[in-house]
Write a structure and sequence with these properties.
The chain is α+β, with helices and mostly antiparallel strands.
Amino acid sequence: MDAGGGGQLFSVDPLERQAARGHGVVTSMAAGSDVIVLGTSRGWLVRHDYTFEDAHDLDLGSGRSGDHSVHRVFLDPGGKHCVATVVHPGGAETYYHHARWPRPKQLPRLRGLLVNAVAWNRQSITEASTKEIILGTESGQIFEMAVEETDKREKYVKPLFELTEQREGIKDLQMETAVVGNSIRYYVMAVTPTRLYSFTGIGSLETVFASYSDRAIHFMELPGEIPNSELHFFIKQRRAKHFGWLSGSGIYHGELNFGAQHSSTSGDENFVENKGFFDYSKLGDSGTKPRSFALSEFHFLLLIGDKIKVVNRISKQMVEELVVDNTPETSRGIIGLCSDASTGLFYAYDESSIFQISTSDEGRDMWQVYLDMNHYAAALSHCRNPFQRDQVYLVQADAAFAAKEYYIAASFYAKMNYVLSFEEISLKFISIGEQDALRTFLLRRLDNLTKDDKMQITMISTWATELYLDKINRLLLEDSTVTTTNSVAEPNSSEYRSIVNEFRAFLSDSKDVLDEATTMRLLESYGRVDELVYFAGLKEQYEIVVHHYIQQGEARKALEVIQRRNVPVDLVYKFAPDLIMLDAYETVESWMMARNKLNPGKLIPAMMRYVSEPHAKNETHEVIKYLEFCVKDLNNEDPGVHNLLLSLYAKKEDESQLLQFLDTKFGKGQTNGPEFFYDPKYALRLCLQEKRMRACVRIYSMMSMHEEAVALALKVDLELAKAEADKVEDDEELRKKLWLKVAKHVIEQEKGVKRENIKKAIEFLSETNNLLKIEDILPFFPDFVLIDDFKEEICKSLKDYNSQIELLKQEMDDATRGADNIRSDIGALAQRYTVIDREQDCGVCRRKILTVGGLHQVGRSYTSVGHMAPFYVFPCGHAFHANCLIGHVTRCSSQAQAERILDLQKRLSLMDRKAAKDNGTSVNGESVMSTTPVDKLRSQLDNAVASECPFCGDLMIKEISQPFILPGESDEKASWEIKPQPTPQKILPMTMSI
């Protein structure tokens, strides 16, 4: 078969002509990491390094004559370490060569042993050391060896094992290691012409092979003869994935699984999986067997004659035949094949040439190979594009459809995107009436669509919704046909419940892609009310959900919906009337849980509806409970809430709660706020209507209608009236008036003997704390009452009046004596004087107070002695010239006060001049005029400037706020500033050249 239309999988190209470089013919070849080492018939090693485009010739014969051809050459995957065996008439010798050495070194411990195979430890090998390697000899022995590049000789050579049951030469070896805990497990495979041996164990190689001295050896024996038995591992990422053994009967191969899960601390382990065998008869070459072979990831490369036949390892079919162009006539044809595990290249060689075999994406058609073998999982893992995956899904779907496994077929059809259209697949299920499979197909198809396919997702989801509803109805009809009743009852079968739960899960998953209106119409048309409510909840159409639960009488479920965080609060107000009538307790509890999130004022209509219904006397009034919660716990200030609570209290027979509510001042915590929030007029009208008289008295009192409160209290309780009369404390006249009302009521209401009435009335006077006298209540008694009945009380009253008169007389005498004292003080004040020291200084100008001349006089009206300037002397001892004091007070006073002082000074000077002009002047310049107006102005000026000492009074205290530097002293301030001295500017001479 042809592996596919992508061109050839393998190609052969000549790499080197005359590769032996004149050292005989090529007898063996090895490759690794772009390095090729050839062994020749004359005992030479020819090393071709294609990385550096270099070649080296290495003589293994040491100049000896005679035949000494290279038997086998082995090269590690890194291309650094090389082992070669030379055969000569005297026996066999083994050499080791490092890439940095100029010439190889003989390994004397292996002298005489014909080495056919070398297994490298790929996980441990380094550039400087081979670490442990295994050698197989023609005599059936297996050795362990290690070579250090620095030692230039073998570090050790240990015998590990020897075939004793059937002595055959070891033709090929492979080794792999895996870490198990803190130890290393070794896996070794060896082949002879007829057998494949496998060894495994934990520890060292010596320990592993020693353990087979007392246990059976695993081997596979195949009959037949072959020129060369070969064993190859396919290496990928430095790990062996599968193996192939070229035996006499065919190629035995399998997968390799190394790892801890297949290992144990003791015992043997079979690490080969998925074994297979390829018979040479499938090649069709009349029994011709391959001389050599190579192993790729998916193919065998078999050398038959000068042709390389490529066989697919999985399908066992030959896919290509490569012809090697071997031009030299003297050549005996292709000798063998070898592979480079590090680069994935293969080589063929004859006596003088090297050919490179390259792969070109050999796994590109493996999906088809696995598909033809019905290995669907493997086929999918090797698909490269969606079209290939669709081909695999199509084969699986068609097979399931033909086997009437429609659900499985629907799942596979849903995964396809290109091979079959959506319509074709849907029609396949519709044509056979498989609605359930069609629904499965639609659901799986939804899983495979991307978010960009919004329209397709919506349409398919809507179709799936209808199919779900159809399935549910069919189950209902089937159940109704089984039962004998005419009504269709919802079944309790597991299938029905399962499909309903599945449908609800589908609605939940698809709520964002389903069209809301269309889906609700579908649910309604099929009569699925529960699912309609469920979907409405998913779409946050909570009004529909709540309305449904209320109709079903399930108040608790409705409240649970309303209490969700994302439900708008308006729904609480909208459904409050219905919910409180349905379950008042649960509704009020939900309101109380909401606390400040609700506005109680908007719930008043619902509460009014609840209040209008009759309730048992011993029933807890839920509305009162909620209103008390709002008022007391939430500190609600809504007048409507307070009025409603007051009205409910008023309708109760027990008036205690109403009176307590009226006495509680709920607004007392607010600044400048009202003491209560209810409407007192409404409260009064309601209490009068309900005949709650004590409450009416309280309300009258709160409204400061004390006369009405006392009048109403007298109809209810005398003690209540007395208490109301005593509440007026700031208005003595009103308080007396109220007590007179109470007294009148007491006198009029008392029945019996007149003397008893008078006695009780007189006792009543003592309760007023002397506010009422006997003369105040006398008018309330009948005219025929004898004065003797009041004799004692009247005498007591007259004594009180006499005491008051004596007290007033004493107060008048005290006032007269005080007035006389004041008059004598005033007369003495005119004669008061003080003594001034002749050295006394003015407090402002610091000049002598008794200075003669030189000072301008304030006015002629001031009395002066000779040419002495007028001055002021204060009791504290400070003295000031008149002008100095006026100037100082003017500066330190406010602008209005200063203007007033200056105005008085000006008016006083004008009057002086006018008086001098009208009456003339005296000899010493003093005016002779009437002093009455002048004295008045002077008195005003004295009060303005000399009411107190400026240094000891309030004026000095006010000067604290005055600035140290006044605005007019800015020039003085500037004169004290320290200015920097100007530094002379340094002038550099400048010369100019012309």
